[in-house]
Protein: Sulfite oxidase-like oxidoreductase
Organism: Skermanella aerolata
Amino acid sequence: MASDGDEPIPDSKLTRTKERWAREGRFLTGRDARPDADRLPPGQHLVRDWPVLDLGLHPTVSQERWRLHLTGAVDNPQIWDWARFMDQPQTQARSDIHCVTTWSRYDNDWQGMTTADLLVAVSPRAEARFVVLHSHDGYTTNLMLEDFAAEGAILAHSWSGKPLSQEHGGPARLVVPHLYFWKSAKWIERIEFRTADDPGFWEVRGYHNRGDPWNEERYSEPE
Ligand SMILES: Nc1nc2c(c(=O)[nH]1)N[C@H]1C(S)=C(S)[C@@H](COP(=O)(O)O)O[C@H]1N2
Ligand SMILES: [Mo]
C-alpha cells in the first residue's frame, strides 16, 4: 500500500500472527550460539531472495521532500535534507541480515554513512543512553546507544550500488546488523536520542527489548 505516512497502523493479519508467536515463544530452539564457528544464528535458515517485511504501508517519500530530524539529548540537533545527508562521510558496509521470523540473508552490500559518523555530527550529551528510530509509516524501534553506534551500523541510501527500493525502506533506512532486522527501521524520519528507554512498536508487542540473534533474544520474558 502506498501512503504518505499519516494513516493509522493497520491491524494486519501478519501483525496479529507475529504477536501470537511472541506469546507462544515460536521458533525458540534453546540451542547455544557459537558466533565464531557458525555464521547462522540458532533457529535461523538461509534465504537467497530478499523478503519484504513491514506493517503493510510503503510510504512514498521523494528525495526532494525527504528530511531527517536528529533530535533529543544532543548538543547539535539538526534537520538534514537529502543534499546535506549525501555530503556526510560515505561508507560501504557488507553484513548479514537475521530476521526474527527465522530467515537470514548473507552478504548485503550497503552504502551510506556510519552511525559512528552520525554521532560525531550530532554530539550526544553525556546523559544520552538510548536511541528511538521513528519512521514515516508510524513504526518505531528502540536501541541502546552502544547498539546504535556499533561497528557495521549504517544509515543506508543504497544496496548493491543502487538506490534502496521503496519496499526495502528507500530513500533511507537504518541497518543494525548485529541485532534482529526489526531494529533496522525503514523510511527513517527521525532519530531521537534519549536519557530513558522507550520501547518501540514490536518491543511493546512481546518482542525482546534488545534482539541479539546470537542469544536468541526473540521475545521478552513472560511476566
Ligand atoms: N519503518 C519500518 N521499518 C521496519 C519495519 C516496518 O514495519 N516499518 N519492519 C521491520 C521488520 S520486522 C523487518 S524483518 C525488516 C524487513 O526489512 P525488509 O523488508 O527490507 O526485508 O524491516 C524492519 N523495519
Ligand atoms: Mo521482522
